[in-house]
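Let us work through a complete example step by step.
Step 1: write down the sequence.
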Amino acid sequence: MNTMKKVVMAYALLMATVLFAEIAWQPDLESAFDKAQKEQKVVMVMVEGEHCRWCKKMKYRTLGDESVEKRLVPYVTVKVMEENKKAVEALPKIDGVPTIFFMTADKELLESLVGYYKVDDFISFIDSVEQKVPLKKQ
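Step 2: predict the structure and record it as tokens.
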């Protein structure tokens, strides 16, 4: 393969990565809420279990969908393992996994959902969150 083709392919790969970026998960609750405070954003917390197959489906099928990823760009996102008791104690009551909380930067609960949701249903859920708290424009 000649050099020009390599350059074009590398550029195409880079653009695909930028355009179809994955969700930028924060490493922990504290950094997620700190970032949300600084940027005046809503936090989406996903609580999952280590051996939960529905959590994996939610992560890879729903949250991994390009249209959902785009909708979640204006949010600060963080994953919490159900087994992390200290982190779980800092959250509202969890009735099962996966659980997703949408919360203000001040840790006020806006909406929550429990279980696996398909892409269209999850996008409808995001719409209902945004009716309560309009997003800050990027």
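Step 3: interpret the result. The beta strands are 25-26, 43-48, 76-81, 99-103, 109-114.
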